[in-house]
Structure formats: structure tokens, C-alpha cells
Design goal:
The structure holds two protein chains of two kinds. By secondary structure, chain A is α+β, with helices and mostly antiparallel strands. Chain A has helices at 2-27, 38-61, 68-73, 80-85, 91-112, 118-142, 166-195, 200-231, 242-267, 271-294, 307-331, 346-376, 385-405, 420-440, 446-461, 476-501, 606-627, and strands spanning 503-509, 514-517, 520-531, 535-546, 549-553, 556-560, 565-569, 571-575, 578-585, 595-603. Chain B has one domain: Glutaredoxin. Classes of the chains: A alpha+beta, B alpha/beta.
């Protein structure tokens, strides 16, 4: 009964979306009779999606095995939290989550947005409904989450054990909210082009949505990276896997958009460019979903791959992006040129930011699609970290150089010599750090050295925009910007330290034997079997010593049943200056009583994710400032930041 | 960043990029995925090698043995490889139909190879032992079993990846005939 309710709600929600779309089409020929229905329909659509998603969650909660999706993804023995997370830990459920967030965003625009004119608002809701309609069709015709299974099995198949992890239970929904949040920017952009309202009011209305989506993407990527780091047991934190790239590309576009939308809001410049970024950001989000779900690129993220579904999402994605860029090509010419500015100005700095981010985006996009392009020529190529690291690192470092100076420049025009002391100071810090590392630590690559040097300079430069301000009267978005830029410095510091100074030891130890990694002496004390809810494991007890301090680590090699799979659970020892990372493997066949133990010392590696969270926190502070701002005189606006 | 009259074509650029990526993606979906890694050596002469016998009672194998004017099959196998056991009857069938087959045993021990031949029969004329997988790598073979069609002049004509099944037997015989 619950399943049928959920399905009915989904059909009704699709009908509401259709109503909004028709209302929107009449809007193109002036105000139609259906126009007043658009807003209420958006609200009802959102509510129906909540009903539908809640129904599916209930089915997973009670483990209703007569529902195909529950039977094939859940199990009666599974811990409750993973039963609930199972709602979105599969294709159908995650698509329902996707469309629900899409609808709720539409409802939120209908409810909250007061800054833009009614016509543009209605057009935005209609575009949002148009996008939703495609995904409703996808769910209802090819991925029905409420399909029944006759006869019902007695226990269910279970969830991939790698996914039975609390961090991962919340990683996909976080990313999805980010992806889908960008749909709002997309809808705003298309609507503003259609009604010809590309200006500061539109930018201010769009900005909180971009900011919100971007915060979720930032948290999602940071969390995903940490999850891969501790769960996969490879010791790496970013693998340039197609699915990782699929989440990075929308983030890069959203980051660029976040900055350019501020220029549009504050200075009424970069109009066409901002619109294009809004379209690109959501196109990248859809491409991300498509790549993940279609299996056209080989990835460690082995999702259930289905070419029919892949074609469906591909068709949707191509339709929405082509239509949007068609509108762009034909309508953006009618948008007037924005306000001019000098190269040395805040706008100039943001343009530099946008160019560097776009170049990185292009590099990642080319690298991700290259194997596919090569295949059309009959070649088989896989593009991996050597390309991505070498190609993106120099641009990322240039981006950091621009970031040292950009935020302290004035809008419209500025003079570099006004900032000469800061410039000399940052140069001196970077040079001193770089030379010191190069001189005293042999064998460190050039990128880690530059990364460390620039991140130290940026850690100071980030705070400069607060200089000379009365802190209590400083708008929250300025604080947000400072925290986010400081977070970036922290994160880059972690990346550079990890890539330049990590130490690794791979060894086979019998109980009682020791190995050394960096300053750590690690002894394999004991190996014993342990049993969990739905797995058994061998667990190594390692005693790690550094000086007179002693710590115990317990890495495991787990064997799950239902479904059968082997995973390694790394043991991590976190110190303020880095992490000791230990992995144990099942013994080799020759079985001489030794266990394969892999040890890493990763200096300051935690800074990577800590910095990422600071970046997201900066975004959150900024968003608070945007949502609850006091009415101000227009003059204050010239200090507004992203 | 605005759109001057002379730059209107730029506005169509994003649409063109979408079309290009869409084309790639459609290709990726439509064309079936082939995860095999084919050898770059197909069409070239065999590399120089001379392998000792893999077990007692059979001869070793060098590239000269394969360039004596007669087209042959070269089977890469190992006694520890399960698909190799599965394809043994079809190698026998090929031999009965007149194919001459040489082999390279990968990371194997003489007694294991002998046991393998005793159990599954010996369709091979010569068996070279490649303990370091050095010759296998030179041939561009990435696993066991694989079967190459070698021309009479020692040219690698065809590479079959994976075990030989019933439906592959006529195909391989046809390739040998073409090589005459």
C-alpha cells in the first residue's frame, strides 16, 4: 500500500510539473490564464515528492521485501542506519532523491524568492519544472523504485559492503543536493535570458542558490575524498577517477560562477559570461550523473550499469543543455554589454580566477573524455594521475598567485603600487619557504615546494581584506570569503606536504617483527580473527613507537558475506602533524607465517580535508550573511563579496 | 566579455562543444565495450627468443622453429590456469583437423606441466618454458590462455585472447588456411 502511495505521488508530481511547464509556455506570449497556477503547482509538486521519498524510506525502514528495490538492496540483518541509507544507495532511490531535491528547490524558489520580477520568477519555475519533468519520466518509465516483486524473498541481497559506512551513507546525497542546487542557477539563467532580465537583481537572486549548492559540493567532495582515503586502503586521497572528476567539474564551474555572479551583482559586468557559467555548471552536474550511471567510462565506482538507462539520461542531458545553449546563442546577443572595468581591479582579479578555473575544468574534461575519443579512433588509452597532476598543478598555482592579490583590489580600478608592500612581503615569504625546503630537504618535487610556499603566503594574504575594517560592522560575506580563502591555503598546504613528504613501507612481518617508516618504529604484535555483524576479519595489532610515545593500531582485512566481498579496513593514527596509515592483507599462498603490512607516514595530510571543510564553512558564513542581511544603503554594496 | 558583432560565432561555441561531447557519449553507448587489450605485435615478425623445454620428453621453442614455412598456432598456457584446462579438448580438435600447435608455458614447473599433459593430452609439437614471462611480454600477451596464428615466415597474424571454445575452432582453422 505504501509503495502504491509513493508511486501515485510521483505520478501526480509529474502532472504538476507538466502544468508548470504549460503555464510557462503561455507566459512566452504574455500573461496566460495558467500563469497564476505556476507557483502553487511548484509547492504541491515539492510536497508530493516528499511523500514519495518518505514512502520509499519507510519501505526500507520496515524492509518490505515485496518491493524489488528493497529486496535487491537491503537485508533483514542490516543495521538500521544502513537500511535507511539503502534508500538512496542504489540507482532508483538515488534518482528519486535527485528529482525530490529538484522539486523541493522549485518549491523553495516559489516560497522564498522576492527579489526578481514575477515574470522572470514564473519563467524560472517553469524551466525548473521542465527539467524535473524529464527526470520524472526517467523514473516512471525506466527506473520505477516502487516496483513489486512476486514472490517476495525471505531475506534480501544486501548492500555492497564498501557502502556500509556511515560517511558514505551521507556522501551521495550531499553531492546530489549540490548537483541539483545548480539546477536552480540553470533555471534562473535560462529564465533571465528569455525575459531579458540579466542584471544585478537576477544575480542577487541566483547567488544564494549557487552558494548553497557549492557548499554541499565542497562538503561532498571533501568527504568523498576522505572516505576513499580511509576505506579503500590505497593510501591516496584523490585518484582522478572519472566519477571523482564528475564531481570536481561542477564544483570548478560553480566556484567560477560564485565569483562571477558577485561581479554581476555588484558591478553589473560579466553578464554573458555569468549566464554561460550557470549553464555549464548544471550541464556538468548532469554529465556527472550520466557518466556515473551509464558505464561508458571505466571507473572504480562500479555502479549497476545499464545502457538503456544511460541512453535515457544522455538524451535528457543533451536535450536540456542543447536547448539552453541554443537560447544562449540566440538571446544573449540582446543582453547589453556590462559595465567596463580596468584590468587591475577586483573584477580583473575575478576574471583571472574564472579563466584559471575554466582552464582547469577544460583540462579535467579533456582528460576524462580522452579515452572515449581515442576509442572512436580505435585506440585504447587510459588517462591517469600523471596527466592530471602535471596539467592542473601549474594552473592551480597560478590561481593561488592571483588569489594573493585579488581580494584586496578595489572594484573598477586600482593601482598595483598601492599594494607594493604586501606584494613584496608575499614574494619574500614564498621565496624564503621555497628556498629553505629546496636547500634542506633533498628530493622534493617542484610542485610540492611551490605549493607549500604559496599556501603559506596565502594563509596570511587571506586575512588582509579584514585590515582596517571595524570587525563588528564588517558584513558576514567578507568574513566568509576570508575563511574560505584561508581554508584553501590550509588544504593546499596539506596536499603539497602529503605529495612531497609522504613515506611508504611495504613489508611482510611475522608476529614480533618490526618495520620502520619515517620516524616510526612499527611492530606487528599479534594477529587474530574478529567477527562483526555481517563480516569476519583478521585483525593485526600493531604497536607504533615514535621516541618514547607508544600507540596501538588495529588494521583489518574483512570478509563480508551477503554479498561476498573482501575489503581492507585501514587503521589510522592521527597526530597534529600527520597520519600514520596501516593496512594488513591476507597472507600469501606460500604461507610462511608472515603478513603483508603496508605503512605510510603522511605529514599534514588531515589539513587537506580540514581545509576543505573551512572552505565550506566560509561559504556557509557567506550564505548566512546573504540570507539574513539588514536592509542597507546601496553604497554598502560595493564591498559585497562572494 | 560581452558579445561584439564580430564575435557572435563564439556564442555558438558552447552548443558545438555540447554536440561534440554528446556525439562521443552516444558512440560510447552504442559501440559495445571491448575490454580486451590486443597486442601491438599483430602484423609484425616474432621477436627473437629461445626457450628451454617446459618438461621432459618435449622440445623447447625458439622463434626460428616457428618460421620454417608452415603456418602454426602458438598457444600460451599454464598448468595452473583453469581456462587452459577448459580449452584443452578444442586444442586436440584443432590438431586432429591438421593444425600444428606450439606452446609456451608460463611460470610453470616441469612436473606440473607433465601432469597437465598426462591429464588433458598433449596436442603440442614443442613447449617452451617462460618462467619470467619475458617472451610473453615481448609477444604482447597479457594473460593465459592466448593463442596466436603465426605465418610460415614467422609473422604474427592473429591473436585470440581467452580460452578457445567450440565456435572458435573453425575460425582458427580458417585463419591457418588463409596463411598458407
Amino acid at each position: 500500500m505504501i509503495a502504491e502511495t509513493g508511486l501515485a505521488a510521483l505520478w501526480l508530481a509529474a502532472a504538476m510539473a507538466l502544468l508548470q511547464l504549460v503555464g510557462g509556455l503561455t507566459l512566452l506570449r504574455g500573461e496566460g490564464k495558467l500563469t497564476p497556477l505556476i507557483k502553487p503547482a511548484a509547492l504541491v509538486q515539492g510536497a508530493l515528492c516528499v511523500v514519495s521519498f518518505a514512502s520509499l524510506m519507510w519501505l526500507f525502514y520496515v524492509t518490505d521485501l515485496s518491493v524489488l528495490l528493497v529486496a535487491s538492496n537491503s537485508h533483514i540483518d542490516k543495521p538500521l542506519i544502513f537500511k535507511l541509507a539503502g534508500t538512496w544507495g542504489n540507482h532508483e532511490g538515488s534518482m528519486l532523491l535527485w528529482v525530490s531535491v529538484l522539486s523541493l528547490s522549485g518549491a523553495a524558489i516559489a516560497l522564498l524568492e522576492k527579489r526578481i520580477d514575477t515574470r522572470t520568477l514564473n519563467a524560472t519555475l517553469a524551466v525548473q519544472a521542465f527539467v524535473a519533468l524529464g527526470f520524472f519520466a526517467f523514473l516512471l518509465f525506466s527506473s520505477n523504485p516502487f516496483e513489486r516483486l512476486v514472490p517476495a524473498p525471505v531475506e534480501g541481497a544486501g548492500l555492497n559492503p564498501l557502502l556500509q559506512d556511515i560517511g558514505l551513507a551521507f556522501h551521495p546525497p550531499t553531492l546530489y543536493i549540490g548537483y541539483v542546487g545548480l539546477s536552480v542557477a540553470f533555471s534562473f539563467a535560462v529564465a533571465a535570458m528569455l525575459t531579458g532580465q540579466v542584471g544585478p537583481a537576477f544575480a542577487r537572486a541566483m547567488r544564494p542558490w549557487v552558494l548553497g549548492a557549492w557548499i554541499f559540493l565542497t562538503v561532498g567532495i571533501t568527504a568523498g575524498s576522505y572516505w576513499a582515503y580511509y576505506e579503500l586502503g590505497w593510501g591516496g586521497w584523490w585518484f582522478w577517477d572519472p566519477v571523482e572528476n564528475a564531481s570536481l567539474m561542477p564544483w570548478l564551474a560553480a566556484t567560477a560562477l560564485l565569483h562571477s555572479v558577485s561581479v554581476l551583482a555588484t558591478r553589473n559586468a560579466l553578464r554573458a559570461w555569468t549566464i554561460m557559467l550557470a549553464l555549464v555548471a548544471f550541464a556538468m552536474s548532469m554529465a556527472g550523473t550520466f557518466l556515473v550511471r551509464s558505464g561508458i567510462l571505466t571507473s572504480v565506482h562500479a555502479f549497476a550499469v545499464d545502457p538503456e538507462r544511460g541512453s535515457f539520461i544522455l538524451a535528457l542531458m543533451l536535450m536540456y543543455t542543447s536547448l539552453a545553449f541554443l537560447v544562449f546563442a540566440t538571446r544573449i546577443g540582446t543582453v547589453k554589454q556590462g559595465e567596463p572595468f580596468q584590468i587591475v581591479s577586483r573584477e580583473g582579479g575575478i576574471v583571472a580566477n574564472n579563466i584559471f578555473l575554466s582552464v582547469i575544468l577544460a583540462i579535467v574534461l579533456i582528460g576524462t573524455l580522452y579515452p572515449l575519443a581515442a576509442e572512436t579512433m580505435g585506440d585504447k588509452i587510459s588517462v591517469g594521475p600523471p596527466y592530471f597532476n602535471k596539467a592542473t598543478a601549474p594552473i592551480a598555482l597560478l590561481l593561488m598567485v592571483a588569489l594573493l592579490l585579488g581580494p584586496m583590489l578595489r572594484w573598477r580600478r586600482d593601482e598595483l603600487k598601492r599594494h607594493k608592500y604586501w606584494l613584496v612581503g608575499f614574494f619574500a615569504i614564498s621565496l624564503w619557504t621555497g628556498v629553505a625546503i629546496w636547500r634542506f630537504v633533498p628530493g622534493v618535487g617542484v610542485f610540492p615546494i611551490l605549493g607549500l610556499a604559496l599556501s603559506l603566503a596565502l594563509a596570511i594574504a587571506a586575512w588582509v581584506p579584514l585590515k582596517g575594517r571595524k570587525l563588528l560592522r564588517t558584513p558576514l560575506p567578507v568574513f566568509g570569503m576570508v575563511v574560505a580563502h584561508f581554508g584553501l591555503a590550509v588544504s593546499v598546504f596539506g596536499m603539497a606536504a602529503e605529495s612531497g613528504f609522504s613515506r611508504e613501507t611495504l613489508t611482510a612481518l611475522a608476529p614480533g617483527e618490526s618495520a620502520k617508516v619515517a620516524d616510526w618504529q612499527v611492530k606487528l604484535d599479534d594477529v587474530r580473527p574478529v567477527v562483526g555483524d555481517n563480516w569476519v576479519a583478521i585483525e593485526g595489532q600493531l604497536i607504533a613507537r615514535n621516541g618514547d610515545k607508544k600507540f596501538i593500531l588495529r588494521p583489518q582485512s574483512r570478509q563480508f558475506y551477503r554479498p561476498e566481498q573482501q575489503t581492507s579496513e585501514a587503521a589510522l593514527l592521527t597526530r597534529w602533524n600527520g597520519q600514520l596509515y596501516a593496512v594488513i592483507a591476507q597472507p600469501d599462498e606460500n604461507g610462511d607465517g608472515r603478513w603483508q603490512v603496508r605503512l605510510w607516514w603522511k605529514p599534514f595530510v588531515t589539513f587537506i580535508w580540514f581545509g576543505g571543510l573551512l572552505v565550506a564553512l566560509g561559504g556557509a558564513i557567506s550564505l548566512l550573511g546573504r540570507m539574513f542581511r539588514r536592509p542597507k544603503k546601496p553604497a554598502v554594496n560595493k564591498w559585497a563579496q562572494a | 566579455m560581452g558579445a561584439g558583432m564580430n564575435r557572435t560565432w563564439l556564442l555558438w561555441l558552447p552548443l558545438a562543444v555540447v554536440a561534440f561531447i554528446g556525439g562521443l557519449a552516444i558512440y560510447g553507448l552504442v559501440v559495445p565495450k571491448d575490454d580486451m587489450v590486443h597486442s601491438a605485435m599483430v602484423g609484425r615478425k616474432l621477436p627473437e627468443f629461445a626457450l628451454p623445454p617446459a618438461t621432459v620428453g618435449v622440445a623447447g621453442l625458439s622463434n626460428r622453429d616457428l618460421a620454417d614455412g608452415k603456418p602454426r598456432l602458438l598457444n600460451i598456457f599454464a598448468s595452473w590456469c583453469i581456462p587452459c584446462k577448459a580449452e584443452a579438448p578444442y586444442l586436440e580438435a584443432l590438431k586432429k583437423s591438421g593444425a600444428e600447435i606450439d606452446a609456451i608455458a608460463i611460470r610453470d614447473k616441469p612436473e606440473d606441466v607433465a601432469a597437465f599433459l598426462a591429464e588433458f593430452g598433449n596436442p603440442f609439437r614443442r613447449i617452451g618454458s617462460d618462467n619470467e614471462m619475458a617472451v610473453q611480454l615481448k609477444l604482447g600477451s597479457s594473460g593465459v590462455p592466448e593463442t596466436y596464428v603465426i605465418g610460415g615466415d614467422g609473422t604474427i597474424l592473429y591473436q585470440h585472447i581467452g580460452d578457445i571454445r567450440a565456435e572458435h575452432v573453425p575460425m582458427l582453422l580458417e585463419k591457418l588456411r588463409e596463411a598458407q
